[in-house]
Records
---
Amino acid sequence: MKKLLAVLLVLAAVLFVFAACSKKAEAGVEQARSTDVTQGMDRKIVMGYSQIGAESEWRTACTNSVQAAAKEWNIDLRFSDAQQQQQNQLQAIRTFIQQKVDIIAFTPVVETGWEAILKECLDAGIPTICVDRSIEGSDRISTNPNDTSDPDNWFTAFIGSDMEQEGNRVAKWMMANVPALKPDKTVYNIAELQGTVGSSAMTGRFKGFRDTLGIPAATALGTSSDGKYKIILSQTGDFTRAQGKQVMEAFLKSNPDDIDVLFAHNDDMAIGAIQAIQEAGKVPAKDIIIIGVDAVKGAFEAMVAGTMNASIECNPLLGPQVMETAVKILNGQPVEKWVVSNESDYDQTNAAAAFPSRQY
Ligand code: GZL
């Protein structure tokens, strides 16, 4: 009996030691993985990030994703909120250069005005990542990397959505669903709430929507090539709920009974417009079909409540891709010029099922 006990004790001790070693080994692997990406660097990576502001649910989700990912990747994130002002972004980026950060990420509030500051980053040897929105003249596929006149070469990588494709998806959802939702009509009048004027999100959605309808992208108002869809109103609501509501109130005053469809460049403006439609005594999602972009929580609540018809997803959870790309750049590893986000379309047929698993 004593011998058996002794054998069991020895066995238990061996198992304990084995378990402890494998735990340590696992920790070692984890540790190795997190330092693998910064091999050769004996300190934390320092990233400067110039974010636009906090104008929408989407923007807040994007900021949260970047800040959480920086922690996850053990990156020292210097975060600047530009309050929607490009001047504040330029100042923040200049400060990052003076601080000699390792890499700079920025979300350009508008497409123009970035050449000088990005060339200052290049001269300082600091790589830059465009996050979410892009800059004018860049199709993100640089043909000649040495051509400094090509905007594609002013930054190292772009992480974000294909905004023109989002406009295309809005038009396709509209053409596939509005005739059945408005059976008494054969021509559908559209009101459009544009995003921030000059932003790549606004210009892309504006163009993609019109291209799909066969309306010249240079014109705000116009009729689709099949004659069925007429953009009769188009004005910016600057991506905010408050301005979306204000502009929709003005639309309803000037065209009280003309509007069949509202295309809002983001859900926040759509939600503001829904309030205006209700206050005008009309039934949202029935009298006026409402299509937004982003697929944020507020849109899912509205689709489930039946006051909004559809939202075309634009993914704000860009943080992990930003950090992974930054670390690869600093490790001299090749990176995609454009890391495109994967996105889906939601409407009243699938919103309730998808809502519980949404992350923003
Ligand atoms: C899109 C992003 C836009 C969102 C808006 O990528 O830039 O800005 O669609 C946000 O909600 O304000």
---
Amino acid sequence: MGIVNVTPDSFSDGGLYADTEAAVAHGVRLAAEGAAIIDVGGESTRPGSEPVPVDVELERVVPVVERLAAETDALLSIDTTKAAVADAALDAGAGMVNDVTALRGDPDMAALVAERGCPVCLMHMLGEPRTMQVEPVYDDVVAEVCGHLARRMAVALAAGVREEQVLLDPGIGFGKTLRHNLLLLRDLERVVALGRPVVLGTSRKRFIGALLDAGPDQRAIGTAATTVLGVAKGAAVVRVHDVRPNVEALRVAQAVLDAGERGVDVGLSHEVG
Ligand code: HH2
């Protein structure tokens, strides 16, 4: 899943793709690099960010979704917490909703997703973006994230969402310390055991910067490490800014995971190693 942030203030690429042309060109490039899903968002969820009015968010994302639907074969996902934005994006050609509040942000979202019958990603977040990084505390972060996701899935199903349309995401960086993020990655199998495809969003996040002492645009290789580990532990989707290095890391990792199963056997006699 490649990320297109049509925002002036996203934490790692804010302002780079804030106008329609730049956002569409970026989405087309990510699809060409191998993204099967393009996640379009018009509101930053970085720690401390303020909500964006619905009309502004609509103006940002709808033209981009329309154009990407015409210009790529990728499944388009709309990253929003607002039912009106999801509704308009689905009309414009999106086929999936990515809601970082797991249907808590807007009382109309659950019914909308149920009615549209589209896939929906439910993510764990402690509190809300404005306050989530203010001393997050858990007794057992993995158990609490899993419990929350199971409860949010139950709410979605009660609203009429079909179970096979639900994806789950532990919400890396959303109300978590470095240690919480590492524990969630180490024990990702426990999230996978909830029985739904898991989306992993580690890309360029602050915990990688803390480990590498690197700024957001220097975190692609660290991100690829989490992609490989995450997929080895059963993640189904990785949400990334830098599609190409992650696709390459994944192709090699997948070949190892599948060794002996698919009969991959390419002659390498002229290469060293
Ligand atoms: N992370 C961000 C935004 N949306 N959605 C899911 N499902 N999982 C995530 O981990 C996730 C997400 C934050 O990253 P980004 O979009 O790059 O930044 P910003 O929110 O500042 O636009």
